[in-house]
Write a structure and sequence with these properties.
With 205 residues, the chain is mostly beta strands. It has helices at 19-22, 24-27, 117-122, 181-191; strands spanning 31-33, 36-38, 53-56, 66-69, 74-78, 83-88, 91-92, 100-109, 144-150, 153-162, 171-173, 177-180, 200-204. The longest helix is centred in the C-terminal third of the chain and has 11 residues, at 181-191. The radius of gyration is 16 Å and the shape is globular.
């Protein structure tokens, strides 16, 4: 993509809640959410570049757009004023990648996860969740999920949380874009306050 990935420590973030972006002890603390208690993330074990931060926008997309840089394992939420909010992500392993443009049609808190039939075929032990695994701390979709559609059709791919914070920065998923739970909650809140809620543009490249 030819991205300039340098953090912009000298530029003031154009966001409403600065501590949730600048202080990792706050960003990744244990929190109670909808009756679930998310454990603290040991952020010291997460590479600094994959922690939530403000950067100069390298994407050129309009504010409010989500851009997933699969090469560098970043997700950007483009802001006004030439900045972007950047999160570390995990991506699909070889053979499960997805790329292109779409929209975030809707989001869910503590979503139900239903493994595809193909996945059950690879992992028969998942048949117990053929009817859906309820939301919870062990659910693979984590605390939030954003559902990617293209041309009015569900792609089957999601931007979602994960209890496996140590997989951020790696290619290990079945094609979805995974985030640390505290980060996906932050992103979910921002996307759902956007003026184009339910039609947020997303670019995966």
């Amino acid at each position: 993509m030819g991205l300039d990935l340098a953090p912009t420590g000298a530029i003031r973030p154009q966001i409403s809640i600065d501590p949730n972006v600048t202080n990792p002890e706050v960003m990744y603390a244990s929190i109670e959410d909808s009756g679930f208690v998310l454990p603290q993330i040991p952020y010291q074990k997460v590479k600094p570049e994959f922690r939530r931060q403000i950067v100069v926008d390298p994407t050129g997309e309009v504010p409010g757009t989500l851009v997933v840089d699969t090469t560098n394992r970043f997700l950007y939420l483009v802001q006004t004023g030439g900045e972007a909010l950047r999160y570390g992500v995990g991506i699909g392993k070889a053979g499960f990648e997805w790329s292109g443009r779409g929209v975030i049609q809707y989001g869910r808190k503590w979503p139900t996860w239903t493994p595809p039939r193909e996945m059950i075929g690879r992992k028969p032990e998942l048949v117990k969740w053929a009817g859906g695994q309820p939301g919870g701390l062990d659910n693979p979709l984590g605390a939030r999920a954003l559902y990617i559609f293209r041309d009015g059709q569900d792609t089957g791919y999601r931007v979602h949380g994960s209890p496996e914070w140590w997989t951020i920065g790696q290619a290990m998923s079945s094609g979805c874009v995974r985030m640390m739970n505290q980060d996906v909650i932050d992103l979910f809140n921002r996307v759902n306050t956007n003026t184009v809620v339910n039609k947020t543009q997303i670019v995966v490249m």
